[in-house]
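WARN retry 2 of 3 for item q-0093 after timeout on previous attempt; input resubmitted unchanged.
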Amino acid sequence: MSRPPPAELIADLSASPFEPVSWLTAGGMGEVYRVRHRGFGHEAVMKLTRGASDELTEDLTRRLLREGRVLKSLVHPNIVPALDLGFTLSKRAYLVTELVIGKTLKEEVRERGPLPLELCVDICCEILLALQVAHAAGVVHRDMKPDNVMLTAPDEHGNRVTKVLDFGVAKILGAEMKAQLGGVPPTIEGLMVGTPAFAAPEQISAKPVDNRTDIYGVGGVLFYIITGRPPFVGLDVNEVMVAHLTQAPDPPSRLRLGVSTALDEVVLRALAKDPADRFSTAADMLSALQAASLVSDQAPTEVLPDQDKYFLSPMSTGSMIAAMPALQPAKGAEVLSNAKTVPLQMVPPAPAAKRTARGTVIGADRPPAQLAPAKALAVTNPAPADAKAPLRVDAKAPRRVDAEAPLGVDPGREAPTVMRRAPDRFGPRFFIAPLLLGMVLAVIIITVAHFSGAFR
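OK item q-0093 returned
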């Protein structure tokens, strides 16, 4: 919910080309405002770092300035462009980007359930086109997830455009890009950067990342919008990260009717544990995805019986990602590359709907989703004293759902909510007790009537 900007910020931005219009949101890195250009009058989005003067703010400032310079060099219709970069009068760094009217993929799935399959393919094709440009410039996004991809509102022709957001934790591999940025500080050894629900195994284990790390992220996003949930669902962050290292994901066809074998193969190859087993480039995955969209299985896809249903309580969202100790498999755990999958739960197919050439859905009703995705939640104290010590999975620890949260320091967020099983309010037990009570009352009434007639 937007609200007017504070008077202090209006004064602080008096020397900027942009004036604040309304407050949009706040996160671990600072605040986000809707702004308007003083001369041209167009509106945009401004990210501002926190006002505090500490080591964390200095790091956030460096990241924000680097993100702005990276965005300025990546020109593509599926990447949100940077419009301005600078400092306020109080020396708070800001980045102004294009205002995108639309919804993130996470919001789309939360409201509509799993998206139509053709739209899923269209979205990921446009994501891959954007990543081709980034990878060619030596930039690895390193945080591909539904929160960082938006669908614009339909234009006058009903078309929607996919936009890739947030290059704040991008990994710079290209020498030319490093030179343009004036050097890039290395990530601390043994620390993970990313979002657990969509992080590649090499991110979780703090191994070197490359373009294939983003391929894994796109595979996770595609899995999410097809099925309505991430590739791995756990009750806490550790459980999800261990699953990324040791478990093979379910084929999407086991969770939703109508998914072709060809589309299954694309998703599972993108989600391969070993980077060498994935698509080597975004262009390769794009070609495979386009080919898979032309293939449909004649026989209906087999779907498993309905499984236990769970719901996730909503949590607050975040945008800044910080480092976390890398997770190593527990002793004796086997890291799988090609393993048999274990079915989890079924998601009903999306209803038929009319579509435009670019995949816009017209008149589609919201399909019932079995599992609602959790909002993101930052981990307030991810790093122990020994940064190189591997995380351990404690079976007795409280079970909490925050795997879709970016890892970061954000004391202002609400506490995670425990995931509980959805109550079965109208099952057979609901009717048994009233039925038995009615039978007992009937017997009593008949007996009293009988004996009353006998004594007359």
